[in-house]
Amino acid sequence: MAYEYVPAIDKAMAELRRVLGGGGRAVIVDCDWDSIVWRSSDRQRMERVLSAFEEHLAHPWLPRDLESKLREAGFAAVQIDPYALFEKDAGHHLIDIVAAFVPGRRGVTKEEAQAWAIDQHELGRRGLYFFSATLYRFVAIAPA
């Protein structure tokens, strides 16, 4: 389940707790979208594109709140571990997904999205592509 896409996160955590029963364990991995580091030739354009892309998520910063949401749902123990996701080779699938999604959102035009994608692909061709994000693994245990 990609909980960052679920608008009713409190209900989803309660349902997860209910389904697991006593002694059950849940493992959730999620990204905080403010942790994105993405090289661009135009920093301001990159910031606008990333801001617009946040709209594809119900909770772009879910890791900040997930521990408390899990505890409120009745999980007794929650362990959190951060992991870095790093791509040095152009992640063409993500570039194309972002470029298709952002036009018309938060003032990003179709032309600007296309220019951003072209820049990303060009950085990749030149060996300068850089993308990283912090993923957080949550292990939550339901009391027996």
Structure in words:
This protein has one domain (3-141): Rossmann fold (3-Layer(aba) Sandwich). 41% of the residues lie in helices and 22% in strands. It is built from five helices and four strands, in the order αββααβααβ. It starts with 8 loop residues before the first helix and ends with a strand.
Describe this structure in a few short sentences.
The chain is α+β, with helices and mostly antiparallel strands. 41% of the residues lie in helices and 22% in strands. It has helices spanning 9-20, 43-53, 63-72, 92-101, 110-125; strands at 25-31, 37-38, 77-87, 131-141.
Any idea what the shape is? elongated
Q: How many helix segments?
A: 5
Structural class: alpha+beta
Give the ordered list of helices and strands. HEEHHEHHE
Rg is 18 Å
The low-pLDDT segments are none
Mean pLDDT: 95
Approximately how much beta-strand content do the residues carry?
15-25%
User: Whole-Å distance between the termini?
Assistant: 23 Å
Report the CATH superfamily.
Answer: Vaccinia Virus protein VP39
- According to DSSP, the number of beta strands is 4
Per CATH, which architecture?
A: 3-Layer(aba) Sandwich
Count up the domains: 1
Instruction: Using the coordinates shown, work out and report the CATH topology.
Output: Rossmann fold
**Helix content percent band:** 40-55%
Top CATH class: Alpha Beta
Let me know the largest β-sheet. 4 strands, antiparallel
